[in-house]
Design goal:
The chain contains seven helices and five strands, in the order ααααβααβββαβ. The protein has 196 residues and is α/β, with parallel strands linked by helices. It folds into two domains: 63 residues, Arc Repressor Mutant, subunit A, CATH 1.10.10; 89 residues, Glutaredoxin.
């Protein structure tokens, strides 16, 4: 763990733009996006030095920043892998096979859930609802969602990432966004009556 932390000039400029969106005296409202910037800069986790830096930048007590960072699962307070694979195991995903998807990810990465690969490249975690229940099961990797997964699809995504590629995001089956499988069944025309 590094004893010091500061944002790069580019990240500091981005942070200042975010802070400027809030009225005077309300800069603490920027804590979540600033923590996200700090975490991305630091290989996907927030050491205590980063929390203290953000607190000073926003004029907050460090404990207040720590409260936010420790409450939300999107912030990591220990090394979590430069690429974090988060598999949703909430009821809709579980009912559609998220346990098998999670086990496929464990096998593809050679680690158990909650662990980080030896080279620090990947971390694997189980998370609660990521909000794409209609396309369950799904996982989030960085800012990207991968939906309508099965074990083979999850393995393919991880193997592509390990090889330095960019896997297809979104649904992994023949579906348009969140439409029913096979396409829409209602409101299938643009004309809704005379004069529309």
């Amino acid at each position: 763990m590094s004893a010091t932390f500061e944002l790069t000039p580019e990240n500091l400029e981005a942070a200042k733009k975010i802070i400027a969106k809030y009225p005077p005296g309300r800069q603490a409202s920027a804590v979540m996006p600033i923590l996200a910037i700090a975490q991305r800069q630091n290989d996907n986790w927030l050491p205590q030095a980063a929390i203290e830096y953000v607190a000073k930048l926003l004029g907050m007590a460090a404990i207040r920043v720590h409260e936010v960072a420790s409450f939300y699962t999107m912030y990591n307070l220990k090394p979590a892998g430069r690429t974090q694979v988060q598999v949703c195991t909430t009821t809709p995903c579980w009912l559609r096979g998220s346990n098998e998807v999670l086990h496929a990810c464990e096998k593809a990465l050679g680690i158990k859930c909650g662990e980080v690969t030896k080279d620090g490249a990947f971390g694997l975690s189980e998370v609660e609802c990521l909000g794409a229940c209609v396309n369950a099961p799904m996982m989030q990797i960085g800012d990207d969602y991968y939906e309508d997964l099965d074990p083979a699809g999850a393995t393919r995504i991880i193997e592509t990432l390990k090889a330095g590629g960019k896997p297809k995001t979104g649904t992994q089956i023949d579906r348009r966004t969140s439409e029913p499988i096979g396409g829409p069944t209602t409101l299938t025309t643009l004309s809704f009556g005379k004069g529309s």
